[in-house]
Amino acid sequence: MDRKKTTKTLGDLLIHSVLRKKYWANEVTFNWGREGECRIDFVSFTPINQSTSGIEKGSFAAYEVKSCVADYRSANGHNLIMDKNYYIMPMEVYKKVVNELPYYVGVYCPIPHGKSNHDEFESPTKAEQLTLDNCALVCIKNSHQKERSISNPVALFCMLRSGYDGQTFGWND
Q1: Quick count: other Cβ atoms within 10 Å of Cβ 141?
Q2: Spacing of C-alpha 171 from chain mean position
């Protein structure tokens, strides 16, 4: 499977396995047109509840999709600026970069149905064999809280603006 197809499959798995029941957007740009501009593959928002204070106290998660080792090691797509931050990558990539991961960043990997995390780590499934139908994303490394410098209103505006750029903004049932 080529890098573009792997990236799409990982994104689809993220939407169906993790972002269900969350407010989310993809291709979210922060600091648009200013120094420090960055784009995050997927951002989710989880309010505490639907009250004003519950929304103001809600939390954000960033998800950066890494389809291969070269993608992970490139200078692009390491915009881990939210409360919780995750990489989405095949297990074969995770095995090669596990010692390079920042402490606070979590990792989700696709695990085929019926296969344990340990078995997938020992014998990773080839990226071209991973599909929406035969696996689910599993958190194999937890994210640790990071201090976010972007306010909730600004982060929510950036998510909303990404939807107006022809991208996705969703709530999945």
Answers
A1: 16
A2: 16
Half-sphere exposure of 154 (CA within 13 A, CB side): 9
What angle is formed at CA 11 by the lines to CA 9 and CA 13, rounded to 5 degrees? 70
Task: Find out whether 7 and 65 touch, Cβ atoms under 8 Å.
Answer: yes
44's enclosing H/E stretch is strand 38-46
Instruction: Give the length of the chain.
Output: 173
CA distance 63 to 42: 5
**What is the Cα 35 distance to its own chain's centre?**
23
Rounded distance, CA 21 to CA 44, Å?
10
Give yes or no for residue 170 having a pLDDT over 60.
no
Rounded Cα gap, residues 28 and 42, in angstroms: 7
- What's the mean per-residue pLDDT of the chain? 87
Which residue has tokens 């696996």? 135
Query: Strand (E) positions, 13-153?
Result: 23-30, 38-46, 59-65, 84-88, 106-112, 135-141
Q: Tell me the pLDDT tens digit for each residue of 129-153.
A: 887 888 989 999 999 998 888 888 9
The continuous run of DSSP H or E covering 136 comes out as: strand 135-141
